Amino acid sequence: MSSILSTCINLLLLLSSAYAFNHPGLLVSEADITRIQNKLSAHADPWQASWDKLVSLDNSQSTYVNHAVAGVYRNTANGVKANAELLWHDAAAAFNLALRWKIERNATYAEAASNILGAWGRKLKEFDVGDDEYLTAGLQGYQLVNAAELLRDHAPFESSGNATAFSTMFEKTFLYKNLFFLNHKAPSEHNVRHFFANWELCNMASAMAFGIYTDNATLFDFAVEYFKTGEGNGAVNNGISNLVSEPGTGTIMGQPQEAGRDQGHTGLDFQLFGVVAQQAWNQGKDLYGYNSSRVLLGAEYYARYNLGNDVPFEPYTNGIVSYTTVSPASRGAHRPTWELLYAHYVQIKGLEAPWTELYKNYTTKAMGGFEGGAGSWGEGSGHYDGLGWGSLLHHLDVGDVDAVSSNSSASNSATLSTPSTTSSNKSLVAQTSAYVTTSVPASATTSVLPRSSKSSQKSTVSASTTLQSVLEAKPLPTRVSHMCTRS
Ligand SMILES: *[C@@H]1O[C@H](CO)[C@@H](O)[C@H](O)[C@H]1NC(C)=O
Ligand SMILES: *[C@@H]1O[C@H](CO)[C@@H](O)[C@H](O)[C@H]1NC(C)=O
Ligand SMILES: *[C@@H]1O[C@H](CO)[C@@H](O)[C@H](O)[C@H]1NC(C)=O
Ligand SMILES: *[C@@H]1O[C@H](CO)[C@@H](O)[C@H](O)[C@H]1NC(C)=O
Ligand SMILES: *[C@@H]1O[C@H](CO)[C@@H](O)[C@H](O)[C@H]1NC(C)=O
Ligand SMILES: *[C@@H]1O[C@H](CO)[C@@H](O)[C@H](O)[C@H]1NC(C)=O
Ligand SMILES: *[C@@H]1O[C@H](CO)[C@@H](O)[C@H](O)[C@H]1NC(C)=O
């Protein structure tokens, strides 16, 4: 009797303490907010320049009026006109305003963000008929939840009914689609490798975000497990599909699943790997380091190639498309991603990631000195696939590293594994000084020009135009979608 009782008590304790989620604990942690506040008090760049840009945007004002509608469509089809930019803009606004609330502690901004999320909570019912609904469900899904997560300490979000309206809608629409898709229930998923990596990554990011936001360990674990062992291309060993040797050094690099397709989408994969890994990291789960830091192996390959250097390529096929060579399409495109990857791998982990560092420098330079955020660096879907603001949220001075490392290690969640801080582990990317001086271009900007004059013409198109046109290529009709691959 007493042993049964104590077993029951132990079980209850186990269940109730299994996960104590950190909040805010998606892309932004409390330690991040504290650091940003300190940097802004000192008017230090790149934080100050990023912040000045953020607060100047229309979508960062308390007077911002939401565009909530019942249906969000990325494509004009079946008599309805594409309107997805309404949600892209509002998701970015909700995040920017929620960030202003956290950083400035002015409730006016929290109310504005709360009203945006509440309005969508009351109105949204459906997405595109056809596969593109999963892009909206994934990309805007994780973005909206990232905004909601920053409002958890604004009591009226809950008491006004906005939080509930948002969550109820999210579960029925976004999350339902995220799980349907990741469980390979869509007809086009008769081949589980049908969809390129970015499709699954954004759906993983969304399901994981909602799991953390609602303290749902089942959902969080599902996304973590999918990242590690999922069957589709979002799982890291498929998303970075081959291990190859870097010319000249023999260093292992990861060939990304979309590398034979184009560089715009491959860059999106690293943007989304960053989201998934950072959200997990803020809960004490180290997906960045999973399987010899596979994400970094891929980032190094991507950055090396996109800075104008050669990479090896192993033939890739998923049974639908086949590639025998890396694609120069949209080579050198930039996205706000690299501040995060650099800060994590080089500064927090102490690993060497020379190409990632150069790509961070190239990207920040191309974007005007700091990584912009949604709404600040251009229009079109590609500019709204990520929330951005890496130079504000993730850039670290040397002196900031310890605080971030210790505060992000899930201090209040005893049963979550602590990130393995391999601060002194430099073995991942074996590097010699000869490698740096011979292979690293003198200037990242000039080196993005590919070698052949044919592809050089492509690369002189502005990176953002290229990115946008690539991502907005019209998809094929739904009925033949199982025979082709898209976004
Ligand atoms: C880290 O966490 C501690 C305790 O939660 C807090 O007092 C401290 O301000 C945090 N440090 C930073 C840099 O946010
Ligand atoms: C809070 O923000 C609003 C909107 O920008 C502004 O009018 C108000 O003065 C701010 N309040 C404080 C205390 O700064
Ligand atoms: C959201 O909050 C506002 C007040 O900030 C309120 O007017 C509105 O009714 C709330 N929405 C819901 C669904 O309760
Ligand atoms: C967690 O999420 C899953 C998937 O949506 C759901 O079935 C389950 O009921 C949720 N658990 C809790 C405790 O809300
Ligand atoms: C790590 O990657 C290798 C090579 O792709 C693979 O064989 C192995 O199963 C992966 N291990 C884990 C734990 O994912
Ligand atoms: C260093 O990293 C390698 C590759 O990820 C790993 O196998 C090794 O165990 C790590 N060593 C230490 C001391 O963390
Ligand atoms: C990247 O930029 C920083 C800041 O300007 C600079 O200190 C660093 O040397 C650059 N890294 C490389 C590899 O050029």
Automatic annotation (TrEMBL):
Domain of life: Eukaryota
Signal sequence coordinates: 1-20
InterPro entries documented for this protein: Alginate_lyase_dom, Chondroitin_lyas
Residue span(s) of domain Alginate lyase: 79-305
Start and end residues of each stretch annotated as Disordered: 446-466
GO cellular component, one term: periplasmic space
GO MF term (any one): lyase activity
Annotated keywords: Lyase, Signal
Protein name stated in the entry: Chondroitin AC/alginate lyase
